Amino acid sequence: DQQVKQNSPSLSVQEGRISILNCDYTNSMFDYFLWYKKYPAEGPTFLISISSIKDKNEDGRFTVFLNKSAKHLSLHIVPSQPGDSAVYFCAASGDGGSNYKLTFGKGTLLTVNP
Amino acid sequence: DAGVIQSPRHEVTEMGQEVTLRCKPISGHNSLFWYRQTMMRGLELLIYFNNNVPIDDSGMPEDRFSAKMPNASFSTLKIQPSEPRDSAVYFCASSTLGTELQGYTFGSGTRLTVV
Prior knowledge:
The complex is a heterodimer of chains A (about 110) and B (about 120).
Chain A: E1 4-5, E2 10-14, E3 19-25, E4 32-38, E5 45-51, E6 56-59, E7 62-67, E8 72-77, E9 86-93, E10 103-104, E11 108-113
Parallel strand pairs in A: 2-11
Antiparallel strand pairs in A: 1-3, 3-8, 4-5, 4-9, 6-7, 7-8, 9-10, 9-11
Chain B: E1 5-7, E2 10-13, E3 19-24, E4 31-38, E5 42-50, E6 53-56, E7 65-71, E8 74-79, E9 88-95, E10 105-106, E11 110-114
C-alpha cells in the first residue's frame, strides 16, 4: 500500500520552461513534505520542504505547493535548466509522531532538453 | 565536511555469503538511517538509530539482516546469509533530530549484487 505516489514515471521539458512534478499521498497524518533530487550513482539530495500548516514554500527557482484537502503536492521549477535533469522523489513524514521516518514516492525522472 | 561516507560503493557476492555495509555519518548528527532502494519497492526505511540506539527496526526484512551502531561515527548493516533478492542499492543517511524540514543527508550508496 503506497502512501506516497508519484504517478508520472517521467517528464520531459524544454529548457527555460516550467517543470511541474506531482505527488499524491493518502495518509492525512503526515506533517512534513519534502522533495529530493537524485543524480545517477549518487544519493538523494534534499531540495525543498513544506510543513502541513503552509500551502506554499519558495526557494529560488523551486516552489512547492501543498493542497491538504486534495492530499496533493507539487514541485514547480522555473525556469528549468538542463542541470535539473534528475530523478525527483517526493517524501512525507510525521505519521503518528514519527517525524524521523520518511516515506518516499517512487520518483519521477525529469529530463530538461536544451 | 565530507558528508555521509559509505563503503564499499559496489559489492558483488555469492549467495550464502555474509555481506557487511559500512557508514560514517556526518559529525554532530545524532540520527542515522539505513534505506534500501529497489525497482519494485522504491526507497524504504530499514532501521533508524538515535544517539546510537536502534529506535525503529520494523523495516528490517528478516532475521538475516542486522545493524549496529557501536559509536556516533560508525554503523554497519550486515546480511547473513545473503540471497539474490537482497540485490539493491543501500543508502545510509544522517540528520539531527528535530530538523525534519531540513531533510536528511544521504551517502552515495552501496550497490549490492548477490549472484
